[in-house]
Amino acid sequence: MSLWQKLIRKSCLLSVMAALLLLCGCGVPTLDIPVLYDAAQVGSQFYAEYPLIDQDVPYVEDNAPLQVLDIFRVESDQPAPVVVFVHGGTWQYTTRKDYGALAETLTERGFVTVIVDFRMYPDDIYPTFVDDTVSALNWTMAHIAEYGGDPQRVILMGHSAGTHLLAMVLTDDTFRSKLTFDPLAQIDGVVLLAGPYHFNIKVLPGVRRMVFDAMGSLENMQHAQPILYARGDIPPTLLMVGEDDDLAKPQLTLDYYAALKEQGAPVQLELIPNNDHYAIVLAMCEGYEGLSLAHTLRFINQRIGTNVQ
């Protein structure tokens, strides 16, 4: 490993460890922290060694430092299917660099993988995060073919705050009207993990304050609830949540599922036993493959005609 690769790996690990310290105050079970750290090590090594990465690609002109994305290409003679992932972190911590392990899982199965960053609190508040997600999706759909991706076979995926951002983009016309592509025609499916679809539920101490801070005001917090914009004309969507999730509690997903079904949306629901807020995304990583990955791959295979396991 070169000195540059070692520096990249060290930087990624320091970033993840800082995030873990923050997570300790947000309800992360102590037993999960070593697993999170192990996944971070896998991801940082993948960043350092994988040869087909385009890093820090800006998706707007005159971009801020976090208005960038990383693209993990694959070796293929034909345009490859694409997964675009928007990360979580209460709209205020973790970055794209913390999800190399997920990128490894997806690229090994032949998916061009795009991991999106967005400006975060405390430098910015809602709706900046959603506007950045719109811009990142617009850029990706316009340019992914240049990186070997097939813009006609695209899956969107988000976890936690990233799930919230995708849900707002796809349902609230304030943001959906800014898309430069037709999500019904060009997005084959959406996988939403452990999302905060509304804020009318008791949460762990301190979490509600973090949500309020990121939203910026009570008015913003009231408007930034995806359940208010439930509609039928969305791409086929898979909702998943861990039954033991204490942060984005399962009831949030159950409520959103019911609201979407009432509008006639093509939505599926999976409750994952013995999973909390973090295990559901860790189960997407090599060495920790679990039910959420199995359900995701089955959904993707159904949507774009692949046969990956």
Q: Which class best fits the helix and strand makeup?
A: alpha/beta
The residue-averaged pLDDT reads 90
Give the distance, in angstroms, between the N- and C-terminal Cα atoms: 31 Å
Q: What's the number of helices?
A: 12
- Tell me the series of helices and strands, N- to C-terminal: HHEEEHEHEHHHEHHEHEHH
Arrangement of strands in the largest sheet: 1-2-4-3-5-6-7-8
Whole-angstrom Rg: 18 Å
The helical percent reads 40-55%
Which band does the percent of strand residues land in?
15-25%
Reported for the largest beta sheet, the result is: 8 strands, mixed
Shape: globular
Q: What ranges have pLDDT less than 50 throughout 5 or more consecutive residues?
A: 1-31
Number of extended strands: 8
Write a concise keyword list for the protein shown above.
309 residues, alpha/beta, 12 helices, 8 strands, 17% strand
Brief description of this entry?
By secondary structure, the chain is an alpha/beta fold.
Overview of this protein structure:
It contains twelve helices and eight strands. The protein has helices at 3-24, 32-49, 100-107, 128-143, 161-171, 173-176, 183-186, 207-215, 218-223, 250-262, 279-282, 291-304, and strands spanning 53-58, 68-72, 80-86, 112-116, 149-159, 189-193, 237-242, 267-272. An eight-stranded mixed beta sheet has the order 1-2-4-3-5-6-7-8, with helices on both faces. It is globular and about 50 Å long. The model is unreliable at 1-31 (pLDDT under 50).
